[in-house]
Design brief:
Elements lengths: L18 E2 L7 E5 L4 E9 L3 E12 L7 E9 L5 E12 L5 E11 L2 E10 L9 E5 L9 H4 L14 E4 L24 E2 L2 E4 L1
Antiparallel strand pairs: 1-12, 2-9, 3-8, 3-10, 4-7, 4-9, 4-12, 5-6, 5-8, 9-11
């Protein structure tokens, strides 16, 4: 009798119209976005699938009707960080809106790790950036230490939950996401939750 290896199915499959994000394992929180800072949120796509929305939820609106964000998708570099840009969705005016923000995309992703990116930009004269829903810091329950690691082998400290890349933008009205992410080993205590909707 020949033996065949049992291959585990990593995911039951994506359902069209439903939203997917990384496993958090922590309580949700609000995250005040910092101007000119790119936030990268990792997500694992276990099987080839198509997606038609990149989304996030605003808890508290920004300070002006002209406020906007730019979002995109990055591949993973060999060092476990975001690498080459795959998608730049362009500018999305969010104004003072609250609630779910859906950005239309049309992207098929092969199996692998990806990084969903967002950078906010404040309108001239605006006092605040939006606050979005995200994941709180809780190292003892944070699955992301599996893919991001900790700076010390100690679960009593803060969990590393987001890569960040501070950029100086001279004219954000024409700004594009960098072709290659240039993050350093810098992480934050909370991460905006970015989502993909299955097509």
């Amino acid at each position: 009798m020949a033996f065949r290896p049992i291959v585990a199915v990593p995911h039951p499959g994506f359902t069209a119209g439903r939203y997917y994000t990384a496993i958090r394992g922590t309580v949700s929180t609000n995250v005040l976005l910092v101007e000119n800072t790119i936030y990268y949120d990792p997500i694992y796509i276990p099987m080839a699938a198509s997606f038609d929305r990149l989304s996030f939820t605003i808890a508290t609106g920004a300070g002006a009707a002209e406020n906007e964000v730019r979002t995109g998708i990055y591949r993973t570099a060999t060092n476990g960080q975001p690498g080459a840009r795959l998608v730049d969705n362009g500018r999305t005016v969010i104004g003072t809106s609250t609630g779910a923000i859906d950005i239309t995309i049309s992207q098929r992703l092969a199996p692998g790790w990806y990084w969903l990116a967002i950078i906010p930009n404040r309108a001239t004269g605006s006092a605040t950036q939006p606050t979005v829903r995200g994941a709180a810091n809780d190292a003892s329950r944070q699955p992301s230490i599996y893919w991001l690691g900790l700076t010390a082998p100690d679960l009593s400290g803060g969990g590393n939950v987001s890569w960040r890349n501070a950029e100086t933008v001279a004219d954000w009205t024409t700004y594009t996401l960098p072709a290659t992410a240039t993050v350093t080993q810098s992480t934050g205590a909370a991460v905006p939750a970015l989502w993909l909707r299955a097509a």
